[in-house]
Amino acid sequence: MNAYAPILGLILLAAVFAVGSVAFSVVAGPKRFNRARLDSYECGIEPTPQPVGGGRFPVKYYLTAMTFIIFDIEIIFLYPWAVRFDHLGVFGFVAMVTFIFLITVPFIYEWRRGGLDWD
Amino acid sequence: MNAPTIEYAELAPLITIFGAAVIGVLIEAFVPRKVRHPVQVAVALLALVAALVQVILLAGTGMVAAVGAVAVDGPALFLQGTILVLAIISVAFFAERRLEAGGDAFAPAASTLPGSEEERILVRERMLQTEVYPLALFAVGGMLLFPAANDLLMLFIALEVMSLPLYLLCGMARRRRLLSQEAALKYFLLGAFSSAIFLFGMAFVYGYAGTLRFGEISEALTANIGQDGILLAGVGLMAVGLLFKVGAVPFHSWTPDVYQGAPTPVTGFMAACTKLAAFGAMVRLFYVAFGGMRTDWQPMLWAVAIATMLVGAVVALTQTDIKRMLAYSSIAHAGFVLTAMVAADQTATAAILFYLATYGIATLGAFAVVTLVRDSGGEATHLAKWAGLGRRSPVLAATFALFLLAFAGIPLTSGFVGKLSVFTAAIDGGAAPLVVVGVIASAIAAFFYVRVIVLMFFSDPAPEGPTVAVPSLWTAVGITLGAAATLLLGIVPGPLLDLAQQASLFVR
Amino acid sequence: MTSTLSALATAVATEGGHGGGQAVAEATGVFDLTWLLIAFPLLGAAILLLGGRRTDKVGHLIGCGASIASFVMGVVLFAAMLGEPSDGRAFTSQLWEYVNAGGYTVDVSLLLDQLSISFVLLITGVGSLIHVYSIGYMEHDERRRRFFGYLNLFVAAMLLLVLAADYLVLFIGWEGVGLASYLLIGFWQHKNSAAVAAKKAFVVNRVGDMGMVLAMSSMVLVFGSTAFDVVFASAEGASTGWVTAIGLFLLLGACGKSAQFPLQSWLLDAMEGPTPVSALIHAATMVTAGVYLIVRSAAIYDLAPDARTAVVIVGAITLLMGAIIGCAKDDIKKALAGSTMSQIGYMTLAAGLGPAGYAFAIFHLLTHGFFKANMFLGAGSVMHGMHDEVNMRRYGGLRIAMPVTFITFAMGYLAIIGIPPFAGYFSKDKIIEAAFADNWITGLATLLGAGITAFYMTRLMLMTFFGNRRWKQSEPPHESPSVMTAPLWALAFLSVVGGFALLYFGAGIVDWLAPVTGEEHHELPMPLWLLITITLATVVAGVAVAWLMYGRRAVREDVPAGSPLTVAARNDLYGDAFNEAVFMRPGQYLTRSLVYFENRGVDGAVVGTATAFGGLSSRLRRLQTGFVRSYAVTMLGGVGVVVLAMLVVRLP
After folding, report:
1. Is residue A117 one of the residues assigned to a domain?
2. Contacts of residue C435, Cβ cutoff 8 Å, sequence gap at least 6
3. TM segments (chain A) (predicted)?
4. Scanning every residue of chain B, which has its alpha carbon at the shortest distance from the alpha carbon of C171?
């Protein structure tokens, strides 16, 4: 059972943080209400108008999100490779170049098919 | 951590297919639209044939490659070879352009709104969807890897690589696009759900054994470390993920909808190849990794097999759509394969390999015939429209009847020998009661196959019935090969049975 | 591997043996050409069915030629067999290895012995005559070539059935004759009733086939093989329970193919096919396959007295049922079909008596093949002259208009009711003797059957050929052309002398078959002359009653109300109603409830709306109202069940 103690600790910590921060903002935050505050959060810009009851997002958002994921994944794999570069040698280098190439292929595809044009 | 060794020669078929798929994506990016279609078809066929040759050259290999992640052994190579053959025929069906006045079975652009002006323009300009070929290649790559995966991680990756392109392919039908998109979304949601369950099970199994490799899991079972509860739950959850892919009851509910909605060539490809790959993976996982605890999972598979055979056969009786009927029939066939699976020995492996090969060929052929029976709305899949087809087009109807007889397991068709081998394997493995259920289920199943045959040959044709389109060489050759193989394997099954027998040993 | 196995099995068969315990030798010389028997008609079928219109003109000749070639081959083999010693007349020839799945091996090999050669000669001999007859009968049918193709296909499949040396190969022939039979029953597919009849035959036969498959599965389980030599040699070592089960499964298979109770209902409908088909398939050969199966499996039934009792009961019930149905039918072919059921009931009963009856079952099967084919072809000749009228109430007095048909038919008639010295007398009398020797009840059933047979056959005879003329057409019906009457003469000749010849020519059929079926004699409970007298008296009584009812009084053209038994018999003794109540209804309920669950419980939207392509947009909305959710819930339930099942197994 000992092995699970850290996990339990982590769960506890997460719960305390989640509940605590919400509670803390209620207690400590200033009580001012205006339109900007009640709007949905979109990185500080004017929110895109949405019809009542959900409605459609432009598909562009998803394209952007996927482009992000392409690079995100690339970074995730690049980092550990960089850390162990010395040990992996030529094999690692070739593998990484192949990987970067493969990651680039969908990017090229997206670019050629107009996925990067924002109208 | 040091650099691992990769056995490139043994992994060549996989590399070929994935490489060709990547090239296919680049072709999409750079080759002009006009010549894209022939180039894509050529690349796909070349890659598949090359991979098939490589698989044949590898025959007899028995080793674990890529640091224990991929097995290159009899069952893997047998299934890979079969999947490649079926995929070659499938690509030929994908490339059929005569049925839709210059178009193929796919929507010109799957992203256009169904019924929109944009769609109409594309159809008028005879735009062709060429992304299906790289997608199909990725799916085939995943299918080749799935039955060869020798550790849990590779198994999951193969599962996803195989499934994701299939979800897309399902949503690309040219006609009845909403039905097709609905099917794709359903398949995706439920597939994601089952993948999650599968992954959950993997985590449990890893939690028990502390390793991902099949061989080491098997050793951990023998050593009996860890908690049984975790292991049993893990095996159960992983079984669910795989049973979903093979379409076993109660994880079958997606099958009829997806088979009906998907473009028919894709349905054929999916019904034949996915089932092969998924059963291959399932057999390897359960025999190699979990073989030591077979008494635990056998009762569960008994129940699933019985439910699958009976539900598949009985519900198929009332279907009025030919594609849905074939879907339920495929469910019943999954049940027949499961009867042999329960036996868990080498004979059973051989029987399953043979059964899958014969079933795949007949399925592909049957769905290809469905694409040819058309009326003004595209394929005429309602059974009532098939009435009297035997009088209008006796050759086509006879071919379809041959495939149906093979499904029904009538002697002198491949299906008979297949059923015979799985049932004898099940009897040898001590599952005789299961065989009794199987025999009853196949008798029930025979009714609805014969109902279609009677409908085709003995009913009066409907006044505004469908016409039988004359296909191009692609489809004609594919169907002829399928029919010939179905008949030949029914009369002289010996060579393929021997091959399956020789290929039935798993490397550990 | 295979050769050692079969050699081993042969050695075992030689030592212990089954039935008569005859050694089976590897075929050499002319016996190695046994496969030609099947190859000729198969080739004929291939040419006729694949050759297309080019072979339209000569199709019928090719068909006849293929069948006759096979017959000649059969005669050659028979003659060669006579040259061998009486206990060395069985030969196997292996063609190729069919299935080799682990420990289970099936060879396509042929077994030629006394039993199978008898069938070969019957099938090809009577078959050839019927082929010739069909040239005339089908002359005006534009699809005659196809018809001959199917006939050849049938002959090939039937020969495979009787020559197979393995139950699995036998099963292939079994399904093949079934296929040819459905094709031929439904040959006139423009008639709705023909299509329905073909379908019914198929469905009922599937039930029988299930018995076959279960029997073979049990053999694999118990003996590890379905080869005759292995199964028969090791049957003694198996438990009685298994042997009985196998016997009962085989009986179920036999019931389906031979139209025995409770799977008899399809045969009467099968008369929708062209008449030569009824003669060949549904009288002389295919429907007797069940009897062949039981006799061939003698080694199993010898060890399973309970299964044998079941065979006797089935035979007795069917023989009376068929006879009663035959009494009430006005359709000449259906009356004959009822008679066929009844006569096969005799054979089944005899086969159920064990070694005492096997040979008599085959004996009656052969003579029945002669006289029933004769009468069916005669009926076809009558129909040919009467513009396809089948209702006997519209016949009458045809003996003057169609003298040849009348005379040949009369030979068959005298044979079936068992008047000495016609063929049926010898064979049926032997069965009645054996039945009495076994016990009184079966004896009385066969005796009663003989009386009823005499009644309904006399009725048929009187209504067709005697009495007042009831047909409406202006010119009298014409006699059939000689291509049709020649086979009638041949079969009539066999109906006259067949019985006597088979019983007394050479050593006789009983000794001929003894090495395969074994032999056994029972003591009769009464002197033989007394039994023969009683039998003949019963037959004469049956004839007399029929004459009183149909000979002295004029036959009415409308159908009289009749007694409840008559009404029941007209309705095939409610065979269909029985099937419906026992098989169809529960099946339908099962289907409905399962489908209900699938539809309402799980995938309601799609079945209903996938066909109706109305509101496409509404479909999309439906999607969002959560049918995927209900699928997912099913899956989740399944997950729970699977995991629970895994855990529960470990609990105890």
Report:
1. no
2. C349, C350, C353, C357, C442, C443, C445, C446
3. 6-28, 61-82, 88-109
4. B411
